[in-house]
Design brief:
Layout lengths: L4 E5 L2 E7 L15 E7 L3 H9 L4 E4 L1 E2 L3 H12 L8 E2 L7 E5 L8 E4 L13 H4 L4 E7 L8 H12 L3 E6 L4 H7 L8 E2 L3 H8 L4 H10 L4 E5 L5 E5 L4 E4 L12 H14 L4 H16 L11 H10 L5
Parallel strand pairs: 1-4, 1-9, 2-7, 5-6, 9-10, 10-11
Antiparallel strand pairs: 2-3, 7-8, 12-13, 13-14
Helix pairs in contact: 1-8, 6-7, 8-9, 9-10
């Protein structure tokens, strides 16, 4: 049976610690409250959360041939995720990040690029990958082999088969824009953070950024605005801004990935626009209340209840 969503792209093992106020000098030791391992990345974090939200999820990415790969695959399988489309690439490490989470939720990172740089989706996998009605590509900017013409081929095929395409990236800048612009006509929901949207477009507001990307061919823009909520702009003229929830932020790692997962779940359940944005915001908010990209999300029902009960930030 086909999955509800295929999540293609960047798969990372995150090692997170909090709260980190400084790095000890020389060989010193500081004591912190919490250390976690999580499956992360703009695809990995999203696929974990879609599975937690009850969707049948297919993971499409790459890990290395190390002990980190074993943990990543086992963890996804524990969540009921289909890992049969994951590639194990010999001779390279699994992509991984060490995050030192500050008391205010900021997270300076140290990253090993690893297997995700060697990942592509061969045409022999298309029938499996594109059997899902929703296809998410996450991690453009850190997918060395897939970024560029290979992504264009991939998204063209997804649209040829009538799939709904959602898209997010990572660490975007002016250079990333050269990769992204040719993809926009094949993206139904373009979902970067507002900082990334501004950096790539050179525009100064959510409204101006949306016009820029819609004019370049995107069907719809959904920007995450951090503490200001989310902004939606469709080529049919629909505009909506959803305010953020009033929560105590512990760690912002994976909030964008959780937003993507929540919005994908809303598409799956055919929610109306306002409910879709609120559900995606609740998903992101839940993750922000704990450590790591999968914190806080328990189930679809729990997230729906949270959406209805949390107070809006004023």
């Amino acid at each position: 049976m086909a999955a509800d969503v295929s999540v293609i792209g960047l798969y990372i093992l995150d090692v997170l610690g909090r709260p980190v106020t400084r790095i000890p000098e020389r060989g010193g030791v500081d004591f912190i409250e919490e250390i976690r391992l999580t499956v992360a990345g703009t695809a990995g974090g999203t696929v974990i959360d879609t599975a937690k939200l009850g969707l049948k999820s297919l993971a499409v990415g790459a890990v290395g041939d190390d002990e980190k790969a074993d943990w990543v695959l086992l963890t996804m399988q524990k969540h009921g995720i289909d890992t049969s489309a994951m590639q194990r690439i010999k001779g390279v490490p699994t992509s991984a990040t060490i995050l030192n989470v500050r008391p205010n939720g900021e997270r300076p990172a140290l990253h090993v690029r690893g297997a995700s740089d060697h990942f592509d989706v061969p045409s022999a996998m298309y029938d499996q990958v594109f059997a899902s009605p929703i296809v998410h590509l996450g991690g453009t900017g850190l997918l060395k082999k897939l970024d560029g013409p290979a992504s264009l081929t991939l998204l063209k095929e997804a649209k040829r088969r009538g799939r709904t395409v959602t898209f997010d990236l990572i660490a975007a800048n002016v250079e990333t824009a050269k990769i992204v612009m040719p993809l926009l006509p094949y993206i139904d929901y373009f979902m970067p953070s507002i900082e990334e949207a501004k950096d790539m477009s050179g525009r100064g507001s959510a409204e101006d950024c949306a016009k820029f990307y819609l004019d370049k061919g995107a069907t719809c823009c959904v920007f995450t605005l951090g503490g200001d909520g989310a902004y939606y702009a469709h080529k049919d003229g629909t505009r909506m801004q959803a305010p953020a929830y009033d929560i105590q932020v512990v760690d912002t790692t994976g909030c964008g990935d959780a937003f993507d997962a929540g919005f994908i779940a809303a598409l799956h359940h055919k929610m109306d626009l306002e409910s879709s944005l609120r559900f995606a915001q609740a998903s992101a908010g839940l993750v922000a209340t704990g450590l790591g990209s999968d914190a806080g999300i328990v189930s679809f029902e729990h997230t729906l209840t949270t959406m209805k009960n949390w107070k809006i930030r004023k």
